[in-house]
Every structure is written in structure tokens, then in C-alpha cells.
Amino acid sequence: MRVGLMGGSFDPVHYGHLILAETCREACELDEVWFVPAATPPHKIGQARAAARHRLAMLQLAVTDQPEYVVSAVEVERGGVSYTVDTLERLRADRPQASLNLLLGSDSLRDFPTWREPRRIAALATLVVVRRAGQSEHDVRRWCDELPNRLGGTANCRVVEMPAIELSSSDLRQRVATGRSIRFRTPQLVEEYIDREGLYRTGAAT
């Protein structure tokens, strides 16, 4: 079993997330991709976000009828600040025979050595790095090649190319807050959920 792990706020999930997951699933021949929304991302402590129940529900709607995609509440149920190393340790305990692959944007790779226990993360999973628009292939591959030295240990790092998709959750939130359309930026079921629940509107409760 080859499992991909994709973390984030998913506030809200959009087609950029889904295309990244599908690109990695195909390129790495993954059997499953797990979407793992964070309870509290370490780099977003103190920032307002939609409640975890909404973010989980939107992910479930986004991957309806897609058996290769799994939405996991492991970080939400654990609570507190969400650290990737803890989630990988849990997944390794639950699936000891699985080959784990951590899906990252290339911007995250650059900062990876500053994460909590990066050497342990690299020991638990192959890093599957998706090159972002505006970053050269040479730079991304160089960061991968230099990672073992930066960590002081071994690291398996694979670069995957994906189409340039200029979407962000913050843009979707801003569009909703200002009354603009998010059609074709997120699945229709997610768009309808956001409207039904009144998410991201100015002054709306989360």
C-alpha cells in the first residue's frame, strides 16, 4: 500500500489542492491520498479560520465518490497545534507496512528543516515535492539534493511537476467576503456548502 499524506488548513479546499493530490497520486502510483486538515497549523497560530467541522465537511464533499481519497480527522481529534511528525507516527503505527509519502509544495520544502523533527519526518516518509509556478526546476531539484546535508541525515525527495494553478484559499475567502463568485475555483458541492453555512462572509461566525 502506497499512501500519500497531504496536510493543510483547507480553509476552504479548492481545485488547486485536488489537482496537486491527483498529480502526485498518478506520478507516484499512490493507492490512497489522505487529506489531513490541521487543528491549528503551527504557522497560523492565532489566525481566525473556519471551524474544523466545516473544513472536514467541505473536504468530504470535495472527494465524494473518489475511493482513492481519504479525509482524516486525526489532527482535529488530537487537538492543539498540529505537527506533521505526530501524524506520520500515528499513520505508521496504524499501517506499519504502508509506504508513506508526504506531499509538499516546493515553497514548503525550502522551510522544511525548520519544521518539528524534520529528520524523523524524512525517516518516516518520502518527500514528494510539487514545483510551484514561478520557481525554477533547477532550484527545486537543488533544494532536494541539498536536503540530506541540511538535515544531517538521509532524506528521500522526489520532484513532481503539475500544471500552474493560481488558486489560494485566502483568495476564495476574500471573494466570498466581498460578494464575488468562487465558481470553478472549488467543487460545486463545496461552493453550495459555503453559501448554505454562511462561511467567510464579513462578520460571519465560524
List the helices and strands and how they pair.
Blueprint: E1 2-8, H1 15-27, E2 32-37, H2 52-62, E3 69-71, H3 74-78, H4 84-94, E4 99-105, H5 106-111, H6 118-124, E5 126-130, H7 137-151, E6 157-160, H8 169-177, H9 188-197
Parallel strand pairs: 1-2, 1-4, 2-3, 4-5, 5-6
Structure overview:
The chain has 206 residues and is α/β, with parallel strands linked by helices. It has a single domain (2-196), classed as Rossmann fold (3-Layer(aba) Sandwich), CATH 3.40.50.620. The protein is built from nine helices and six strands, in the order E-H-E-H-E-H-H-E-H-H-E-H-E-H-H. It has helices at 15-27, 52-62, 74-78, 84-94, 106-111, 118-124, 137-151, 169-177, 188-197, and strands at 2-8, 32-37, 69-71, 99-105, 126-130, 157-160. It has a six-stranded parallel beta sheet. The radius of gyration is 17 Å and the shape is globular. The termini are far apart.
